[in-house]
Design goal:
The protein has 524 residues and is of the alpha+beta class. The chain has helices spanning 2-17, 24-39, 43-60, 63-77, 86-99, 103-119, 123-139, 143-157, 171-185, 189-203, 212-225, 229-245, 249-265, 269-283, 289-306, 309-359, 369-381, 399-406, 408-425, 451-467, 495-511; strands at 388-396, 431-436, 439-447, 469-472, 475-478, 481-488, 517-521. The protein has a domain at 369-521: Reverse transcriptase/Diguanylate cyclase domain (Alpha-Beta Plaits, 2-Layer Sandwich), CATH 3.30.70. A 5-stranded mixed sheet has the order 2-3-1-6-7, sandwiched between helices. A hairpin with a 2-residue loop joins strand 4 and strand 5. The relative contact order is 0.05. One of its GO terms (cellular component) is plasma membrane. One of its GO terms (biological process) is cell adhesion involved in single-species biofilm formation.
Length: 524
C-alpha cells in the first residue's frame, strides 16, 4: 500500500512538472517515477514517464532525445489496458516535426492523433490537434484553411459539458485567440474583435493561462488596431520579458517569430529591433537548421528596412550560409516526403476501401443499417423549419417462400434486381439502404410536396411486380413489395419516431393483402 501511495505522489509531481520550467529536478522526478513504475510493472506509469521526459526534452530543444522518449512511451502504452499517453504522444511528435520544417511528417502524426482521439472520444485532445494543424496551415500561408481547423476544434469542444480539466490550458479560450489572430491576418478586423471580446469574457474567470505568449501575440495586434497605446505597451512589455527570460523559448518560438514579422510589417521599429536582436542571439544556440533559417531570413528583412548597406549585406551573407545547409536538408526531406506520399497514397486507398466495406452492404452496394441510420440522423439534425422529409420502409412479400422454393441463389438475384430498380427510380434520394434480408429504406431530406415522390413509390411497386419474376422447376413465384411511408414537416421529429411510424405502416400494408403502399403525414 505504501508503494502505491509513493507512486501516486510521484505521478502527481511528474504531471505538475509539465507546467513548470525544465530543470535538473524535472528529470530527477521523472526518472524516479520511471524506476518505480518499472519495479511495479506499471505500464501506464512507464508510458507517462517517457512521455513527460520527451516533452521536457522538446522544451529544451533536444529533438532526437524527444523522439526516442516518445517512441518508448508508445511502446509501453501498447501493453496498457487504457489509452494512456498514446494520443498526446502523437500530438507531440507532430510538434517535433513541425519545428523541424517537416510538415508532411507532422501531419502524419497529427492524423494518427486524430484517429486515436476519435476512437477514444477524447474531445480535448481532438480539439488540440485541430488547433495545431491549423497553426501549421497558418505558417504555410493558408489562413483560410487554418480557420477551418480552428472552427473544427471549437465545434468539438461544444460537445463537452465541462471545460478543459487543466486549469492553465483551456482550449476553448485558445480557439478564440487563434481564430481572432487568423481573422486579423485576413484584415477582417470586426470578426477579430468579436473573438477578442469573447476571449476577454472567458479569461475573466481564469487566474492564469500557460500559453500567455499566444494570447499576447493576438492582443498586441488588437490594441494596436484600437490605437490603445497604453495596453499595447503593457502587452509588449509582458511578452518581451518572457522572451528575454527564455521561458520555454522553443515552445513559444513560433509566436516570437510571428510577432517579429508583425512588427516589421506594421513598421514598429523599436519593438522589431528588440525581438530580432534577441532571436538572432538565441539562434546561435539552436541546433535546428529550419528555425535558424527562419530567424536569419527575418534579419535580412529587418536590415533591408532599417539597416545600412553593410549590415544588410552582412545579413545576406549569413543567410546564404544557413540557406545552403537548409537546402541540403530540404532535398533529403523531399525524398522522404515522396516515400511518405507513396505510403500515404497506399494507406488512403486502403482506408477508403475499408471505409466503403464498413458503410455499404456487400451484395447490393446500398448503405448498410448502421450507415443509413447515421446519415438520416445527421440530415434530420440539420433540417430547416418547414422542410418536408420522407422516410419509407419496404420489403418483398413472401420472400422466404422464394428462398425455400427456388433457392438462395435465386433469392439473391431477386434482391439485386430490386436494388437496381431502387437506384434507378429513387436516384434523387439522399439515402438508399438495406437493413438486412429483404428490408430496404428510402429517405428524402427535402421535397417540395408528397405527390411527386409518391408517384415514384407507385412506379417502384408496379415494376417490382411486373419486371421481377422467378421460376424454378416449373414453379413460378410472384414477386411483390409492401411499403410504409411517413412524411412530415415537423422539425423536432427523431429518427426513432420516423422508423417506428413507417414500420407500423409497412405492417399495415402486409395486413391489408400485400403489394400495396400505406402512408401518413406525421403530426406527432
Amino acid at each position: 500500500m505504501e508503494d502505491i501511495k509513493y507512486n501516486d505522489s510521484l505521478k502527481k509531481k511528474v504531471i505538475e512538472s509539465r507546467y513548470q520550467p525544465v530543470t535538473r529536478e524535472t528529470f530527477a522526478i521523472i526518472s524516479a517515477y520511471e524506476i518505480e513504475s518499472r519495479f511495479t510493472n506499471d505500464y501506464d506509469g512507464l508510458s507517462l514517464a517517457y512521455f513527460c521526459k520527451g516533452e521536457a526534452y522538446l522544451r529544451q530543444g533536444k529533438f532526437s532525445e524527444t523522439i526516442t522518449a516518445l517512441e518508448e512511451s508508445l511502446k509501453y502504452n501498447k501493453n496498457s489496458n487504457i489509452g494512456g499517453c498514446e494520443g498526446v504522444c502523437y500530438n507531440t511528435m507532430g510538434l517535433v516535426y513541425a519545428y523541424q520544417g517537416y510538415e508532411l511528417n507532422a501531419m502524419k502524426y497529427y492524423f494518427e492523433g486524430i484517429n486515436f482521439a476519435q476512437a477514444h472520444n477524447d474531445i480535448e485532445l481532438l480539439s488540440t490537434l485541430y488547433i495545431n494543424i491549423g497553426w501549421l496551415y497558418y505558417e504555410l500561408g493558408d489562413t483560410k484553411k487554418a480557420i477551418g481547423c480552428y472552427e473544427k476544434a471549437y465545434v468539438e469542444l461544444q460537445t463537452l459539458e465541462n471545460s478543459f480539466s487543466q486549469e492553465l490550458v483551456d482550449p476553448e479560450i485558445m480557439c478564440q485567440i487563434y481564430l481572432g489572430h487568423a481573422y486579423f491576418d485576413l484584415k477582417n478586423y470586426d470578426t477579430a474583435l468579436t473573438y477578442f471580446y469573447s476571449a476577454e469574457k472567458m479569461l475573466s474567470t481564469k487566474k492564469d493561462l500557460y500559453y500567455d505568449v499566444c494570447l499576447f501575440n493576438f492582443y498586441i495586434r488588437i490594441f494596436d488596431y484600437l490605437d490603445d497605446k497604453e495596453n499595447s505597451q503593457k502587452v509588449f512589455d509582458s511578452v518581451s520579458d518572457i522572451l528575454i527570460r527564455g521561458k520555454d523559448f522553443l515552445e513559444f518560438l513560433e509566436f516570437y517569430i510571428d510577432l517579429a514579422e508583425y512588427f516589421l510589417e506594421y513598421n514598429h521599429y523599436e519593438r522589431a529591433k528588440i525581438f530580432v536582436d534577441y532571436l538572432i542571439d538565441r539562434a546561435e544556440k539552436i541546433d535546428l537548421i529550419y528555425l535558424k533559417y527562419r530567424i536569419k531570413k527575418l534579419n535580412i528583412k529587418f536590415n533591408e528596412l532599417y539597416g545600412d548597406r553593410n549590415s544588410f549585406l552582412d545579413a545576406c551573407v549569413k543567410f546564404i550560409k544557413i540557406d545552403f545547409q537548409y537546402q541540403e536538408l530540404a532535398d533529403a526531406s523531399k525524398v522522404s516526403s515522396m516515400e511518405n506520399m507513396e505510403l500515404l497514397n497506399i494507406s488512403r486507398n486502403q482506408t477508403m476501401f475499408y471505409e466503403s466495406l464498413a458503410r455499404h452492404d456487400n451484395m447490393t452496394g446500398l448503405f448498410n443499417k448502421n450507415a443509413a441510420e447515421y446519415m438520416i440522423k445527421q440530415f434530420l439534425s440539420k433540417r430547416n423549419s418547414g422542410e418536408m422529409c420522407i422516410f419509407a420502409i419496404m420489403d418483398l412479400d413472401k420472400f422466404k417462400q422464394i428462398n425455400d422454393t427456388c433457392g438462395h441463389y435465386e433469392g439473391d438475384r431477386v434482391i439485386i434486381k430490386t436494388t437496381e430498380l431502387m437506384k434507378q427510380i429513387f436516384s434523387q434520394a439522399e439515402v438508399l439502404g438495406r437493413f438486412g434480408g429483404d428490408e430496404f429504406v428510402v429517405f428524402y431530406k427535402h421535397v417540395s410536396g408528397f405527390r411527386e415522390p409518391f408517384k415514384l413509390f407507385e412506379e417502384f411497386k408496379k415494376r417490382v411486380h411486373s419486371e421481377i419474376s422467378t421460376k424454378e422447376s416449373g414453379v413460378e413465384v410472384e414477386v411483390s413489395t409492401s411499403i410504409g411511408i411517413v412524411y412530415t414537416r415537423r422539425i423536432d421529429i427523431s429518427y426513432t419516431d420516423l422508423f417506428n411510424e413507417a414500420d407500423n405502416l409497412l405492417y399495415e400494408s402486409k395486413e391489408k393483402g400485400r403489394n400495396r403502399i400505406t402512408f401518413v403525414e406525421y403530426q406527432g
